[in-house]
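call fold(seq) -> tokens
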Amino acid sequence: MSSLLIKNAEILVTMDDNRREIRNGGLYSENGFIHNIGKSNELPETADEVLDLSGYIVLPGLVNTHHHFYQTLTRALPAAQNANLFNWLKTLYPIWARMKPEDVFISAETAMVELALSGCTTASDHLYLFPNGSRLDDEIAAGKEVGIRLHASRGSMSLGESKGGLPPDSVVDSEENILRDSQRLIETYHDPNPGSMLQIVLAPCSPFSVTGDLMRESAKMARHYGVHLHTHLAETEDEQEFCLQKFGYRPVGYMQSVDWVGNDVWFAHSIYVNKNEIDVYAHEGCGVAHCPSSNMRLASGIAPLREYMAAGIKVGLGVDGSASNDGSHLLAEARQALLLSRLRSGIEGFSLSADKVPPLMTGRQALELATRGGASVLGRKDIGSLEPGKCADLIAIKLDKLTYAGALHDPVAALVFCAPQNVDYSFVHGRMIIKNGQMLTIDTDRLIEKHNHASLRLLQ
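ret:
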């Protein structure tokens, strides 16, 4: 049995149903699951590992609900700096087509280390092209090295330019191969049990890169095996026009037509939706991965976050692709969500009830999106808050930083309102992976060197 005792935290933010914030708080866990939580003098006195976090704020580990790890290889590419989504994709598809399995591995390590340092302990990634023998297995292997929880999405593209899709034919695959590999991955890797470190998701890329047949067959397979479904949806006005012309539906209506609504489905972005479509999400239990930085970077628009919250829709945060953000800092994404939500005027015909969501989104609500919200979107009941029976996934940030000077009257809000910081400690399932701001599982200097070498080779 391995046990962990955290004690004397300045504030322990539980994110439990009562949203308790415990001063001089701590927790005790065994074998990766929390047994006790409360004030430090109420906890056991000994454990295999004891950490005094006086002067630190402790939070549940953050949950990232949408990413493309491989895109760390093509950040800030000059040719794609000033393009909207469709042109950005057309610029980058031929470059990504040069990737090899080792590129997928190293880019996944880079993205997950960056996420971990920003407070993320669970990440969902969407890998949807597999050039030159690359496989989702390459990303999964990287996840085991880094040590965070991974929801690895088996993405896919089957609708190439020759068939009316957006991606070039060189990066699409046959639907037979896609479904065969999806089954293989689920049967080989998916772990549905509490405390799972790895789950598989089926994730055809988007309405403009796969056929309706693949959407339907993926949904059937996912529900047969009990895994979740994920795709991009309603991200741009171009996509909306594409769906109307090709399918005769707006994006959400198209999802309904191919049996892609339900509490096992979550969509990335969902910017261009109306009141009726928000009602569909709420009624069917669909989740949303809100990606504010990417949506601004690509000039896509502002998702109706506060309307989603008012409707009771499951919403988590996603840093999205590292070539459309161009980073992987999840605490920064929480801040971005807070700020951007204060600019949106609202959807016509949708009334924001004051008892469901205040006039302005709060810092604590932003942190809730990054913790409880993300866990709900991924269908995880064992993470997202610090309470007995849940996983010992937690992060700690020291409060004596220059960034927080003058803000200690409310340290919880300061995490979001002040400049985003990296974490000082991180535990995943009771295992320390970050200590004093340094990764324990990966040599970051060596990682940076290898990653930059891979990126330069890819772009030459």
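The chain has a mean pLDDT of 96.
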